[in-house]
Amino acid sequence: MRPERSAGARPTGPATPVKVGYVLKMYPRFSETFIVTELIQMQRLGVDLEIFSLRPPVDGRFHASLAELRAPVSYLQHLGLRAGDVWQTLREASTVLGDLGEHLDELLRVELRDAVHAVQIARSVRERGITHLHAHFATVSAVVARLAARLSGISYSVTAHAKDIFHEDVDPEQLRRVIADASSVVTVSDFNLDHLRATFGSDADHVRRVYNGINLDEFRYEEPRDRPPVIAAVGRLVEKKGFGDLIAAAARLRDAGRSFRVDLIGAGPLEAELKAQIDRLGLGNHVRMLGGLPQGEVVRIVGGAAAFAAPCVVGSDGNRDGLPTVLLEAMALGTPCVATPVTGIPEVLVDGVTGLLVPDRDPAAVADALALLLDDVDLRTSVAKAARDLVETEFDTTRQARLVAQSFPHFSQEG
Fold it and tell me: What is the pLDDT of residue 7?
């Protein structure tokens, strides 16, 4: 892992009021705990927040930590995009955005819904005194934030993750515009940073790496010396998580006569396929699919496991994890991890030091590494302690939020 790529002293709080509008595709989203964690910390740092959600939430599960947020949330009008509705939006916005017509070419360059949302946000910026916009993911949320910032005459910044960089559907020229015009861009791994700079050259000179942070108070360390032989895994049931390889590894452990259990937490489109794999391999007594669970339950299960598995892969569509937040959470809890060298994972998981690294799409290697952690108590304990030390040093949410906030106008870097 490289030293932090950032400039200047670490800010500790705002010198003058900072009002930042977060532009998100969908809020809240159960799988995006890192966004909620960042928002809570921004609030603690004194940043006045508003949230703009381009889509209404579709998941009825919400994390308890949402109750801490005081930021108002605006769910943008989901017009039927009839001509009359669009013209009405433009007429109303023109009373606040007097130069709206000067941006007609840019409005016509994006999807109609995105253009309408940008106008709605720009109007809110002017009416509510918002000084800066920040978007998570460099796709539709960043496209809308960029245009809204230009319409309202303020700055914007972006956090780029992974799917928004690597997926086959990403429009490279759109991504270039989003990056080039932003006052600041952060991304969540050195792997991503190198890719963006290699791809976009000088347009990406201002991109910085800032890891996703976690609230260490919620993930307390316990030594894993005496834990039962439980292997935990957490994530959406999608190809990039590699859970099919974990199930195949479980079959190898079973065939070797081992006593163990895999607790797989998460929901997603591959649920039926993974259940069928478990049935086909006769693993019903060894692998439990627990579905999506509240954060407290996830912490309890992962924090009580002898090992954590994150056998990530690059999906057939190019999609991949940037650096799974749940891997950092397991490391914080003292649960030794087995993972693959996908994107940013090797930056935190040093083989034999802070965890065990195995080749991707290799169930035999996954099984061998898990067996080693189940058998070797001293190894389990040593890698867990080293992993916790790393997380405390590099991934505390207070530190990470301050680094992101360096791009917010008027955010003080003194003190």
Answer: 34
Type of residue numbered 283 = L
Rounded to whole angstroms, the Cα distance separating 373 from 392 reads 22
Q: What is the full DSSP assignment across 164-193?
A: HHHSTT--HHHHHHHHHH-SEEEES-HHHH
Residue with token string 């995006």: 32
Dmax over CA atoms of the chain, in Å, equals 74
Taking the C-alpha atoms of residue 258 and residue 256, their distance in angstroms, rounded to an integer, is 6
Structure tokens at 346: 């090797």
Percent of the chain residues topping a pLDDT of 70: 93
Question: Coil, strand or helix: which one is 285?
Answer: coil
For residue 71, the model assigns a pLDDT of 94
**Which residue's structure tokens are 């099919």?**
244
pTM of the full structure: 0.88
| CB distance 210 to 403 below 8 Å | yes
Summary mean pLDDT of the chain: 91
Residue 313 has pLDDT above 80, yes or no: yes
Question: Does 102 or 253 have the greater pLDDT score?
Answer: 253
What percent of the chain is modeled with pLDDT above 90? 79
**Whole-angstrom Cα distance, residue 336 to residue 375?**
12
52 φψ region: left (φ > 0), alpha (ψ -120 to 50), beta (else): beta
Contact between 53 and 73 (Cβ < 8 Å): yes
**Domains (ranges, CATH) in the chain?**
13-213+396-412 (3.40.50.2000), 216-394 (3.40.50.2000)
Identify the pLDDT of residue 237: 97
d(CA 188, CA 161): 6
Per-residue tokens: 111: 């999807």
Report how far residue 147's alpha carbon sits from residue 109's, in angstroms, rounded to the nearest whole number.
10
In this structure, what are the phi and psi dihedrals at residue 4, rounded to the nearest 5 degrees?
-55, 130
- Whole-number Cα distances in Å, 57 to 43, 119, 159, 181: 22, 21, 21, 29
How far is residue 406 CA from its own chain's centroid? 19
Give yes or no for a contact between 64 and 296, defined as CB atoms under 8 angstroms apart.
yes
Distance CA(224)–CA(390), nearest Å, equals 17
CA distance 45 to 11: 9
Contact indicator for 408, 154 with CB cutoff of 8 Å = no
